[in-house]
Design goal:
By secondary structure, this protein is of the alpha/beta class. The protein folds into two domains: 7-170 and 348-376, Glycogen Phosphorylase B (Rossmann fold, 3-Layer(aba) Sandwich); 176-343, Rossmann fold (3-Layer(aba) Sandwich). Helices cover 44% and strands 16% of the residues. It has helices at 20-32, 47-50, 71-78, 92-101, 118-121, 125-137, 149-156, 176-182, 205-212, 230-240, 254-262, 278-285, 296-301, 315-327, 333-347, 349-376; strands at residues 7-12, 37-42, 56-58, 86-90, 109-113, 143-146, 164-166, 191-196, 219-224, 246-250, 266-269, 290-293, 308-311. A seven-stranded parallel sheet has the order 3-2-1-4-5-6-7. Strands 10-9-8-11-12-13 form a six-stranded parallel sheet, sandwiched between helices. Helix 4 (92-101) packs across helix 6 and helix 15 runs parallel beside helix 16 (349-376). The longest helix has 28 residues, at 349-376. The two termini are 28 Å apart.
Protein backbone atom coordinates (compact mmCIF):
# COMPACT_ATOMS: atom_id res chain seq x y z
CA UNK A 1 0.00 0.00 0.00
CA UNK A 2 1.45 3.35 -1.04
CA UNK A 3 2.00 6.04 1.60
CA UNK A 4 2.32 8.86 -0.92
CA UNK A 5 5.94 9.38 0.13
CA UNK A 6 8.99 8.96 -2.06
CA UNK A 7 10.32 5.40 -1.79
CA UNK A 8 13.98 4.91 -0.94
CA UNK A 9 15.72 1.54 -0.57
CA UNK A 10 18.95 1.34 1.43
CA UNK A 11 21.16 -1.60 0.44
CA UNK A 12 23.70 -2.57 3.13
CA UNK A 13 26.20 -5.37 3.66
CA UNK A 14 24.82 -5.95 7.16
CA UNK A 15 23.49 -4.18 10.25
CA UNK A 16 24.99 -6.36 12.97
CA UNK A 17 27.27 -6.11 14.79
CA UNK A 18 26.39 -2.43 14.93
CA UNK A 19 29.78 -0.78 14.46
CA UNK A 20 30.47 2.66 12.98
CA UNK A 21 29.10 2.19 9.45
CA UNK A 22 26.06 0.28 10.64
CA UNK A 23 25.29 2.84 13.35
CA UNK A 24 25.46 5.87 11.05
CA UNK A 25 23.24 4.02 8.55
CA UNK A 26 20.60 3.38 11.21
CA UNK A 27 20.88 6.99 12.41
CA UNK A 28 20.21 8.27 8.89
CA UNK A 29 17.29 5.89 8.35
CA UNK A 30 15.76 7.07 11.63
CA UNK A 31 16.20 10.70 10.58
CA UNK A 32 14.50 10.13 7.21
CA UNK A 33 11.77 7.59 7.91
CA UNK A 34 9.07 10.14 8.82
CA UNK A 35 9.51 11.84 5.44
CA UNK A 36 10.22 8.91 3.11
CA UNK A 37 8.99 5.38 2.60
CA UNK A 38 12.14 3.50 3.49
CA UNK A 39 13.03 -0.13 2.90
CA UNK A 40 16.29 -1.84 3.80
CA UNK A 41 17.90 -4.74 1.91
CA UNK A 42 20.61 -6.54 3.89
CA UNK A 43 22.97 -8.58 1.71
CA UNK A 44 24.10 -10.83 4.56
CA UNK A 45 22.50 -10.92 7.99
CA UNK A 46 20.09 -12.63 10.35
CA UNK A 47 16.86 -12.06 12.26
CA UNK A 48 18.80 -9.66 14.50
CA UNK A 49 19.14 -7.30 11.54
CA UNK A 50 15.38 -7.35 10.98
CA UNK A 51 14.79 -5.99 14.48
CA UNK A 52 16.86 -2.84 13.93
CA UNK A 53 14.59 -1.04 11.45
CA UNK A 54 11.20 -1.33 9.77
CA UNK A 55 10.76 -3.18 6.46
CA UNK A 56 14.10 -5.01 6.50
CA UNK A 57 14.71 -7.81 3.99
CA UNK A 58 17.69 -10.14 4.52
CA UNK A 59 18.99 -11.90 1.40
CA UNK A 60 21.05 -14.58 3.15
CA UNK A 61 23.51 -15.34 5.97
CA UNK A 62 26.47 -13.01 6.68
CA UNK A 63 29.39 -12.87 4.23
CA UNK A 64 32.96 -12.15 5.32
CA UNK A 65 36.09 -11.24 3.34
CA UNK A 66 36.10 -12.54 -0.21
CA UNK A 67 32.94 -14.55 0.53
CA UNK A 68 31.32 -11.24 -0.34
CA UNK A 69 31.71 -12.19 -4.00
CA UNK A 70 28.61 -14.32 -3.39
CA UNK A 71 26.69 -11.07 -3.00
CA UNK A 72 26.68 -10.83 -6.81
CA UNK A 73 24.26 -13.74 -7.09
CA UNK A 74 22.11 -12.40 -4.25
CA UNK A 75 21.84 -8.95 -5.79
CA UNK A 76 21.24 -9.97 -9.41
CA UNK A 77 17.47 -10.49 -9.26
CA UNK A 78 17.04 -8.02 -6.40
CA UNK A 79 18.47 -5.18 -8.50
CA UNK A 80 15.89 -5.81 -11.24
CA UNK A 81 12.85 -5.22 -9.03
CA UNK A 82 10.56 -2.37 -10.02
CA UNK A 83 9.50 -1.40 -6.48
CA UNK A 84 12.80 -0.04 -5.16
CA UNK A 85 12.39 3.67 -5.81
CA UNK A 86 15.70 5.50 -5.35
CA UNK A 87 18.45 3.12 -4.22
CA UNK A 88 21.11 4.16 -1.69
CA UNK A 89 24.13 1.84 -1.79
CA UNK A 90 25.91 1.95 1.58
CA UNK A 91 29.68 1.63 1.15
CA UNK A 92 31.99 0.29 -1.51
CA UNK A 93 31.48 -3.39 -0.57
CA UNK A 94 27.80 -2.92 -1.44
CA UNK A 95 28.08 -0.45 -4.31
CA UNK A 96 30.56 -2.39 -6.45
CA UNK A 97 28.61 -5.69 -6.63
CA UNK A 98 25.29 -3.89 -7.10
CA UNK A 99 26.59 -1.73 -9.96
CA UNK A 100 28.23 -4.79 -11.55
CA UNK A 101 24.97 -6.72 -11.87
CA UNK A 102 22.21 -4.07 -11.93
CA UNK A 103 20.64 -2.95 -15.22
CA UNK A 104 22.23 0.33 -16.28
CA UNK A 105 19.20 2.54 -15.68
CA UNK A 106 16.85 0.35 -13.65
CA UNK A 107 16.47 2.91 -10.85
CA UNK A 108 17.95 6.13 -9.55
CA UNK A 109 21.09 5.19 -7.62
CA UNK A 110 23.11 6.96 -4.92
CA UNK A 111 26.45 5.63 -3.71
CA UNK A 112 27.01 6.61 -0.07
CA UNK A 113 30.79 6.39 0.22
CA UNK A 114 32.53 5.97 3.61
CA UNK A 115 35.76 4.19 2.76
CA UNK A 116 37.70 5.15 -0.37
CA UNK A 117 40.40 7.33 1.15
CA UNK A 118 43.94 7.23 -0.24
CA UNK A 119 45.49 6.66 3.21
CA UNK A 120 43.30 3.58 3.68
CA UNK A 121 44.24 2.20 0.28
CA UNK A 122 47.91 2.11 1.30
CA UNK A 123 47.07 -0.45 3.99
CA UNK A 124 44.52 -2.66 2.21
CA UNK A 125 44.96 -4.64 -1.00
CA UNK A 126 41.22 -5.51 -1.20
CA UNK A 127 40.37 -1.80 -1.03
CA UNK A 128 42.85 -1.04 -3.82
CA UNK A 129 41.10 -3.61 -6.01
CA UNK A 130 37.70 -2.18 -5.11
CA UNK A 131 38.90 1.32 -5.94
CA UNK A 132 39.94 0.20 -9.44
CA UNK A 133 36.49 -1.29 -9.94
CA UNK A 134 34.73 1.76 -8.52
CA UNK A 135 36.54 4.06 -10.97
CA UNK A 136 34.61 2.35 -13.76
CA UNK A 137 31.38 1.55 -11.96
CA UNK A 138 30.60 4.73 -10.00
CA UNK A 139 29.93 6.62 -13.24
CA UNK A 140 26.74 4.52 -13.45
CA UNK A 141 25.43 6.06 -10.22
CA UNK A 142 23.29 9.19 -10.44
CA UNK A 143 25.01 10.69 -7.41
CA UNK A 144 27.83 9.95 -4.97
CA UNK A 145 27.60 11.18 -1.39
CA UNK A 146 30.91 11.36 0.48
CA UNK A 147 30.91 11.56 4.28
CA UNK A 148 33.78 14.05 4.40
CA UNK A 149 35.75 16.45 2.21
CA UNK A 150 38.87 14.21 2.12
CA UNK A 151 36.79 11.33 0.72
CA UNK A 152 35.22 13.64 -1.87
CA UNK A 153 38.61 15.11 -2.83
CA UNK A 154 40.10 11.67 -3.45
CA UNK A 155 37.10 10.57 -5.51
CA UNK A 156 37.09 13.74 -7.61
CA UNK A 157 40.30 12.37 -9.13
CA UNK A 158 38.19 9.71 -10.87
CA UNK A 159 36.97 12.40 -13.26
CA UNK A 160 33.92 10.38 -14.32
CA UNK A 161 31.44 10.77 -11.44
CA UNK A 162 28.28 12.56 -12.53
CA UNK A 163 27.65 14.43 -9.28
CA UNK A 164 29.38 14.26 -5.91
CA UNK A 165 28.26 15.92 -2.68
CA UNK A 166 29.64 15.97 0.87
CA UNK A 167 27.03 15.18 3.52
CA UNK A 168 28.47 14.33 6.97
CA UNK A 169 27.12 11.60 9.20
CA UNK A 170 24.42 12.36 11.74
CA UNK A 171 26.03 13.15 15.11
CA UNK A 172 23.89 13.98 18.13
CA UNK A 173 25.27 16.59 20.54
CA UNK A 174 24.40 16.88 24.25
CA UNK A 175 22.75 19.98 25.73
CA UNK A 176 24.90 22.46 27.73
CA UNK A 177 23.18 21.42 30.99
CA UNK A 178 24.13 17.77 30.38
CA UNK A 179 27.73 18.78 29.72
CA UNK A 180 28.01 20.74 32.95
CA UNK A 181 26.58 17.84 34.97
CA UNK A 182 28.75 15.20 33.28
CA UNK A 183 31.97 17.13 33.84
CA UNK A 184 31.41 16.89 37.58
CA UNK A 185 32.90 13.42 38.04
CA UNK A 186 35.26 11.92 40.60
CA UNK A 187 39.00 12.33 39.97
CA UNK A 188 40.75 9.46 38.20
CA UNK A 189 43.88 8.03 39.84
CA UNK A 190 46.89 8.26 37.55
CA UNK A 191 46.22 8.66 33.83
CA UNK A 192 43.87 6.10 32.28
CA UNK A 193 44.02 6.10 28.48
CA UNK A 194 41.44 4.48 26.19
CA UNK A 195 41.70 3.46 22.51
CA UNK A 196 38.47 2.64 20.65
CA UNK A 197 38.33 0.92 17.26
CA UNK A 198 38.56 -2.34 15.36
CA UNK A 199 41.93 -4.03 15.85
CA UNK A 200 43.33 -3.57 12.35
CA UNK A 201 46.53 -2.30 10.76
CA UNK A 202 44.84 0.99 9.84
CA UNK A 203 43.81 1.70 13.44
CA UNK A 204 47.49 1.28 14.47
CA UNK A 205 46.93 0.42 18.14
CA UNK A 206 50.56 -0.75 18.25
CA UNK A 207 51.53 2.93 18.51
CA UNK A 208 49.52 3.23 21.72
CA UNK A 209 51.22 0.18 23.22
CA UNK A 210 54.68 1.39 22.22
CA UNK A 211 53.94 4.85 23.66
CA UNK A 212 52.72 3.30 26.93
CA UNK A 213 56.02 1.39 27.21
CA UNK A 214 57.78 4.78 27.34
CA UNK A 215 55.61 5.96 30.24
CA UNK A 216 55.81 5.10 33.93
CA UNK A 217 53.48 3.02 36.09
CA UNK A 218 50.88 5.75 36.66
CA UNK A 219 49.73 5.38 33.04
CA UNK A 220 47.34 2.57 32.02
CA UNK A 221 45.57 1.68 28.79
CA UNK A 222 42.29 0.03 27.76
CA UNK A 223 42.13 -1.17 24.15
CA UNK A 224 38.44 -1.39 23.20
CA UNK A 225 37.51 -3.42 20.14
CA UNK A 226 38.06 -6.71 18.38
CA UNK A 227 39.59 -7.69 15.07
CA UNK A 228 42.32 -9.60 13.23
CA UNK A 229 45.19 -7.90 15.10
CA UNK A 230 44.10 -9.04 18.58
CA UNK A 231 46.73 -11.80 18.92
CA UNK A 232 49.54 -9.65 17.51
CA UNK A 233 48.71 -6.78 19.86
CA UNK A 234 48.47 -8.93 22.99
CA UNK A 235 51.81 -10.50 22.10
CA UNK A 236 53.31 -7.03 21.59
CA UNK A 237 52.09 -5.93 25.04
CA UNK A 238 53.80 -8.96 26.58
CA UNK A 239 56.99 -8.31 24.61
CA UNK A 240 57.04 -4.69 25.82
CA UNK A 241 56.48 -5.80 29.42
CA UNK A 242 53.33 -3.70 29.86
CA UNK A 243 50.67 -6.45 29.95
CA UNK A 244 49.83 -5.60 33.58
CA UNK A 245 48.92 -2.03 32.52
CA UNK A 246 46.90 -2.94 29.42
CA UNK A 247 43.37 -4.33 29.22
CA UNK A 248 42.02 -5.73 25.95
CA UNK A 249 38.25 -5.54 26.37
CA UNK A 250 37.22 -7.12 23.07
CA UNK A 251 34.05 -5.92 21.34
CA UNK A 252 31.79 -3.77 23.54
CA UNK A 253 28.31 -2.46 22.79
CA UNK A 254 27.78 1.28 22.59
CA UNK A 255 26.70 1.73 26.21
CA UNK A 256 29.75 -0.16 27.45
CA UNK A 257 32.02 1.97 25.25
CA UNK A 258 30.47 5.07 26.80
CA UNK A 259 31.22 3.69 30.25
CA UNK A 260 34.84 3.03 29.29
CA UNK A 261 35.17 6.60 28.04
CA UNK A 262 33.57 7.97 31.20
CA UNK A 263 36.38 6.29 33.20
CA UNK A 264 39.11 7.68 30.93
CA UNK A 265 41.50 10.58 31.36
CA UNK A 266 42.20 10.65 27.62
CA UNK A 267 41.09 9.07 24.35
CA UNK A 268 44.16 8.12 22.29
CA UNK A 269 43.36 7.62 18.61
CA UNK A 270 46.23 6.28 16.50
CA UNK A 271 44.35 5.51 13.27
CA UNK A 272 46.41 6.50 10.24
CA UNK A 273 43.27 6.98 8.11
CA UNK A 274 39.83 8.29 9.07
CA UNK A 275 37.02 9.03 6.64
CA UNK A 276 34.78 10.86 9.13
CA UNK A 277 36.07 10.43 12.68
CA UNK A 278 32.99 9.30 14.59
CA UNK A 279 35.19 8.36 17.55
CA UNK A 280 36.13 12.01 18.05
CA UNK A 281 32.47 12.91 18.51
CA UNK A 282 32.01 9.97 20.88
CA UNK A 283 34.87 11.22 23.05
CA UNK A 284 33.48 14.74 23.07
CA UNK A 285 30.05 13.39 24.02
CA UNK A 286 31.73 11.66 26.99
CA UNK A 287 33.62 14.91 27.79
CA UNK A 288 36.99 13.22 27.38
CA UNK A 289 39.82 15.08 25.60
CA UNK A 290 41.40 13.51 22.54
CA UNK A 291 44.99 12.93 21.51
CA UNK A 292 45.08 11.87 17.86
CA UNK A 293 47.71 11.27 15.23
CA UNK A 294 47.77 13.75 12.37
CA UNK A 295 45.37 12.98 9.50
CA UNK A 296 43.25 15.15 7.20
CA UNK A 297 40.09 14.32 9.13
CA UNK A 298 41.80 14.81 12.51
CA UNK A 299 42.77 18.35 11.47
CA UNK A 300 39.12 19.03 10.58
CA UNK A 301 37.59 17.51 13.72
CA UNK A 302 40.10 18.40 16.48
CA UNK A 303 39.79 20.70 18.38
CA UNK A 304 36.83 22.36 16.61
CA UNK A 305 34.34 19.55 17.19
CA UNK A 306 36.24 17.54 19.80
CA UNK A 307 38.53 19.24 22.35
CA UNK A 308 42.01 17.78 22.08
CA UNK A 309 45.46 17.75 20.50
CA UNK A 310 47.12 16.40 17.34
CA UNK A 311 50.47 14.60 17.42
CA UNK A 312 53.03 13.12 15.08
CA UNK A 313 52.39 9.38 14.60
CA UNK A 314 55.38 8.03 16.53
CA UNK A 315 55.51 6.37 19.98
CA UNK A 316 57.97 9.01 21.20
CA UNK A 317 55.81 11.95 20.13
CA UNK A 318 52.68 10.36 21.59
CA UNK A 319 54.37 9.58 24.92
CA UNK A 320 55.69 13.14 25.17
CA UNK A 321 52.24 14.58 24.41
CA UNK A 322 50.57 12.31 26.99
CA UNK A 323 53.00 13.45 29.70
CA UNK A 324 52.36 17.10 28.87
CA UNK A 325 48.58 16.60 28.77
CA UNK A 326 48.63 14.83 32.13
CA UNK A 327 50.32 17.87 33.68
CA UNK A 328 47.93 20.45 32.16
CA UNK A 329 44.57 21.76 33.31
CA UNK A 330 41.67 19.94 31.59
CA UNK A 331 39.66 21.76 28.94
CA UNK A 332 37.11 24.11 30.53
CA UNK A 333 33.40 23.38 30.38
CA UNK A 334 33.01 26.17 27.80
CA UNK A 335 35.21 24.27 25.32
CA UNK A 336 32.92 21.22 25.42
CA UNK A 337 29.80 23.39 25.19
CA UNK A 338 31.16 25.20 22.11
CA UNK A 339 32.27 21.94 20.46
CA UNK A 340 28.80 20.45 21.08
CA UNK A 341 27.16 23.55 19.60
CA UNK A 342 29.26 23.25 16.46
CA UNK A 343 28.56 19.50 16.13
CA UNK A 344 24.85 20.19 16.42
CA UNK A 345 25.10 22.94 13.83
CA UNK A 346 27.09 20.98 11.25
CA UNK A 347 26.21 17.33 11.96
CA UNK A 348 22.82 17.59 13.69
CA UNK A 349 19.73 15.69 12.54
CA UNK A 350 17.96 18.73 11.09
CA UNK A 351 20.93 19.74 8.93
CA UNK A 352 21.77 16.26 7.64
CA UNK A 353 18.13 15.28 7.08
CA UNK A 354 17.59 18.47 5.06
CA UNK A 355 20.62 17.79 2.85
CA UNK A 356 19.55 14.19 2.16
CA UNK A 357 15.89 15.09 1.54
CA UNK A 358 16.89 17.72 -1.02
CA UNK A 359 19.12 15.24 -2.84
CA UNK A 360 16.64 12.36 -2.80
CA UNK A 361 13.70 14.59 -3.74
CA UNK A 362 15.73 15.87 -6.67
CA UNK A 363 16.33 12.33 -7.92
CA UNK A 364 12.69 11.32 -7.42
CA UNK A 365 11.61 14.43 -9.35
CA UNK A 366 13.90 13.40 -12.19
CA UNK A 367 12.12 10.04 -12.27
CA UNK A 368 8.74 11.77 -12.39
CA UNK A 369 9.81 14.12 -15.21
CA UNK A 370 11.33 11.21 -17.12
CA UNK A 371 8.10 9.19 -16.77
CA UNK A 372 6.02 12.17 -17.93
CA UNK A 373 8.27 12.71 -20.95
CA UNK A 374 8.05 9.02 -21.89
CA UNK A 375 4.26 9.04 -21.55
CA UNK A 376 3.95 12.15 -23.74
CA UNK A 377 6.28 10.77 -26.39
CA UNK A 378 5.38 7.13 -27.02
Amino acid sequence: MSTGKFRVTFVVSGLTPTLGLERVTLNLIKALEQHLEIRVIVIGGSDADKNLASRVEVLGPPLQGWQRLRSLARLYSCSRRSDLGTVVLVGVWTAVPWLLVAPAFASRTVVWEHTLLREKLLHSRPLRILKLMSRCLYRRADHVVAVSSPVAEDMQEYGNIRRITVIPNVVEAPAPRDIEQALVKPPIAGCHIVCVGSLTTIKAQHLALEALALLDEQYSLAVVGSGPRMTALTELAEHLGIEDRVEFTGYLDRNSVKEELHQASLLLHCSVAETFGLVYAEAADAFVPVLTVDTRVARYMVPRYSPGWISEATPEALAKAIREIHRTTPFPTEAYIEAARLRGLDFGVERIRGDWLRLLTDLSSLDARSAATTKGNP
